[in-house]
Every structure is written in C-alpha cells, then in structure tokens.
Design brief:
Helix content is 37%, strand content 21%. The chain is an alpha+beta fold and 350 residues long. The protein has two domains: 273 residues, no CATH class; 38 residues, Wnt (Wingless and Int-1), C-terminal domain (Endo-n-acetylneuraminidase fold, 2-Layer Sandwich). Helix 5 packs across helix 7.
Length: 350
C-alpha cells in the first residue's frame, strides 16, 4: 500500500482523500487489527484523530466514499472561474499547495469539506449504514409549526450527531496548533458545518379521510447538497479579510471598511493569486487550455479567463438530441442532430 508523504496534512483534505485513493476495502474487514494498522499509517493525523479513526472505521469508510461529492460540488461552483477547485494528482494533498496560503479559496475548501463530511455522515446514519447512529432519537411525540400541530414520525436526519463527530475529528489538528491559521481554519470549518443544518427542512405526510390532513406525520430532512454549495459560494464572495488581534487570541477585520465577520462568514488572511499562470508554490494550475466564452462578459469570458493572453479557436463536431416528440404512452423519441461548433481555449503563457 502506497502512502502519501507525511508532514503536510491540512484538516480533512488530505486525510479523506487518502481514504478514497489509497485504502483498499479489505482493510476495513480485517477487524480491529486491520483498522488500527490502517489508521496508524495515515500521514498527518494527530493522536485524537487516530483514536477516532480506530474506534469508528465504518464512519471513516463512509466519509471516504462521500468525498467525491463535495469536491464535485466545489468544482461545480467554480467551473467558470480562473480557480476551478482543481485537484492536484500526486501532490502532498488533494489541492496541492493551495492550502499553504490562507486565501479565500482555502477558506471555501475548508468550509465545503467540513460541510461535505457532515452531509455524508448524516445520510449514512439515516440509511442505517453505521452502528453508532441512526435516525434522530430526539424527534418523538408532538410538535408544531406555522400550519399547526403534527406528530414526529418517519426518519429525521440526525445532523447533530454528524456535526459533533465532524467537529471532533476535523478540528482536532487545528486545536492542537492554535495559531492564526488554525483559528481561521476552525472558524471556516464551523461555518461549513452550520451551513448544512441551515437547510434542514420539515417534510410531512397527511393522514385523514380523502387526504383531509387532519393529522400530519413529519420528519426533518437535509436539503440537496447543492443548496449548501450555493450558500457557501455566496459566503466566498463576501468573505472577510482578517488579522490577529493584539492579544493573539483571535482575529478581527483587516480594514475598518470591512464588516465584522459573523460565525456564518468565511474569513481569510492572505490575498489570492490571480491564478492566471501555473505556479506550483501557490497551488495555481493556470488557465492555459481552459475553455472560455468569446461572447460573455463575466468570469468565463475569454478576456478574463485567458488573462489577456488570447485564445485559440477550433471547429469540433457535436451530437445532440433534437426534435424530441412525446408518444402516447409513454415514450419520448428524439433525433440525433450533428452540428459544427467553435470551441475557444485560452493560450498558455508565451
């Protein structure tokens, strides 16, 4: 089994990626000994994280299988921007050296990864995949909302359990450090966890004669993770630059013109690179070869995406479904339409 180099491990980003790319499923079925050997060989974990890993191998496995989901959400949110949440193959961690800098992008990565772990664990609990949790045991008896009273039933997502475990595991390394960077990481981790709980929604089923809804049975359910991603993307846009306070115990806004950061805001210390040119030290993959929109005026425009270097245009063939018709009952028939389209890609640095 090949291990990632030790010494550089930022929060969940290295650890969880290691589970998905390096750990063979057979390790988890070797019992306590197999889990201990596996957990002891993950680079960069502090003692508290190794302890939790040994005690909860099924949770580790569940989180490992869900990591692609939150990385995919990160890449969706930034697909049309110079920094597109790109991952770095064969690097010390999944995002390369991006996390060496306390930038807006690093803040978003910490928040979305923390949120992703909460979401994955909550779902695993509700689906009965873990021995240590299931549906929320506190949702019993009667309650009420703006529509009146209802009875708790079904399976309410146990998000509080997931938040508690995620905080204990992910924050353990940062709490050991307690420097300026650790404080911002802890803040952004918490903002990510809170974001998932923000979008819990009450779902109900009506009971009564002819659907009269005399009695309602309700449960709390997580919203689609896209809502969390959209929310954290907005928090990225309004992230607050901070500096350490005079006592070295916390941080405050860097400039008076900035708003005071709340517990829901993302915070960062350092300015971001422009991500125009590939730079291994800053974690920038550059925009050479990226597809751009020649007619747009936003972040995905060729002018912005290509950083003034210009772009190449190529003619490509594309097949799409067209002239779709509904046939009773119940099929949709479409034709395959072929077209030639122009694709514009940014030039690399000269």
């Amino acid at each position: 089994m090949n291990l990632l180099p030790s010494g550089i491990c930022f929060s969940v980003c290295v650890t969880i990626f290691w589970f998905t790319s390096e750990v063979d499923a057979s390790w988890w079925h070797m019992g306590t000994l197999g889990s201990q050997v596996m957990c002891d060989n993950i680079p960069g974990l502090v003692s508290k994280q190794r302890q939790l890993c040994r005690q909860h191998p099924k949770i580790m496995q569940a989180v490992g299988t869900g990591v692609k989901e939150w990385i995919g959400e990160c890449q969706h949110q930034f697909q049309n921007h110079r920094w597109n949440c790109n991952t770095m193959a064969r690097d010390h961690n999944v995002f390369g050296k991006l996390l060496h800098r306390s930038s807006r992008e690093a803040a978003f990565v910490y928040a979305i990864s923390s949120a992703g772990v909460v979401y994955t664990l909550t779902r695993a609990c509700s689906q009965g995949e873990l021995d240590s949790c299931s549906c929320d045991p506190g949702k019993k008896g009667s309650s009420w909302d703006d529509k009146g009273t209802f009875e708790w039933g079904g399976c309410s997502d146990h998000v509080d359990y997931a938040i508690k475990f995620t905080q204990a595991f992910i924050d353990a390394k940062e709490k050991k450090e307690r420097d300026a960077r650790a404080l911002t990481n802890l803040h952004n981790n918490r903002a990510g966890r809170k974001a998932v709980k923000r979008f819990m929604k009450l779902e109900c089923k009506c009971h009564g004669v002819s659907g009269s809804c005399n009695v309602r049975t309700c449960w709390l359910a997580m919203a689609d993770f896209r809502q969390t991603g959209d929310y954290l993307r907005k928090k990225y846009n309004s992230a607050v630059q901070v500096v350490m306070n005079q006592y070295g115990t916390g941080f405050t806004r860097a400039l008076r013109k900035f708003k005071r950061p709340t517990k829901n805001d993302l915070v960062y210390f350092e300015d971001s690179p422009d991500y125009c040119i590939r730079d291994h030290d800053s974690g920038s993959a550059g925009t050479g070869g990226r597809i751009c929109n020649r007619t747009a005026r936003g972040a995905d425009s060729c002018e912005v995406m290509c950083c003034g270097r210009g772009y190449d245009t190529s003619r490509v063939s594309r097949t799409t479904k067209c002239e779709c018709k509904f046939h009773w009952c119940c099929e949709v028939h479409c034709r395959d339409c072929h077209e030639e389209v122009d694709v514009h890609t940014c030039k690399g640095p000269s």
